[in-house]
Amino acid sequence: MKLFHPLTFAIALKYGLNSKAHKFAKFVAILSTVGIAIGVAALIVDTSIMQGLQNRLKKSVLSDTPHIVVETSQNSIPEILKLKNVVAAAPFVQAQTLMQSKNSLALINLQGLDDSNITYANGYERKDLKLISVPPKGSFELNAEAALYIRNDLKLNTGVKLISTLNARYTPMGLTPTQRIFTLKKYYSSANSTALDSAVGNYDDVRRFFRMPAQANSYRIWLTDPFVIDSVTPKLKAMGLNFTDWTSVQGEFFKAVAMEKLTMTIMLCLVIVVASFNIISALAMVVSSRLTEIAIFKTMGLSNLRILNIFLLMGIFVGVIGTVLGIILGIPLTYYVSDMMSNTGSFGTLPVSIELTNILIIGLGSVMMSLLCTLYPAVRAAATDPVTHLSRG
After folding, report:
1. Which terminus of the chain, N or C, has less C-beta within 10 A?
2. Please, what is the angle between helix 23-61 and helix 247-289, to 10°?
3. pLDDT (tens digit, 9 = 90+) per residue, 304-317?
4. Which intervals hold domain ABC3 transporter permease C-terminal (predicted)?
């Protein structure tokens, strides 16, 4: 037996479009359609802009933040590079150090990277990494965040003294920290959300400053996407390696962004839920006004399943029409909002990321919610007793 017979469609269309028996029910159904369209459009705008912002933050904030820093020897690198989502590895060292200049004293995060000794996984090469310019070996130069220059009133080609207590030595004068003059040669833009500014130097220069051995025992690992960190770290733990990842530095910031996105999504989903509940009211009124006709249909041989399908289709019509209108309205509205907010000059260029998967999830969710709200009046119509209502007529 076919689930939806042509007669079922015909009756559903008649009740939904051509019936004049209950105009108020049609008015409520129209409100439901408009409400679903508004909710879907708003949800597309919100999720697309929030996803765009998240992608921009991921690109800017995590561009200079090591995805993973693992303590190991060169012998373990080939095995690490075989892990899924791992792109490359390079000798790396980082620690906090005190930076002293003529006008300021600041605690910074000093990083050393050996960009001439990067090992790549199969299928990847240097262009797949977004590398910050690293000074040449022996230059004792630093490439620092632009914020470090601004906050400490520094200029390019300025010499600063770095002071570190890491591997400090005892002398007749007591515990003596390591000191070295580095030159701030270049700068790079960063949206770092941590309290400490960062500076990058050549691995060998920074290693010598921290008095570390020549043999590298710490490596920076690049991933295809920083957000796949949870698929890699369990495997590193299984290998018995000690490591740190970007979530220990930037994790709380991105959790706050994700929570904001989730909160806005839930609020806008409630708009769709409320609009869908109106379908119950509209169909309940239609069923109440059509009980005699339903009884007649049953005496003519229409099964309970067919009666159920008639009213399910009516609810689905409302949900599908509202969802399609919402998608048609939401996509151009997203770009309009982005352009409008960008032209104000306060937000810069507002990023947008409209993903097909996201739209499909919103659309299917909206239609399914409409279908769920249709079940009660549809089941009530299917359970109509023809004897009772025909005798009343």
Report:
1. N
2. 170
3. 888 888 888 888 88
4. 266-386
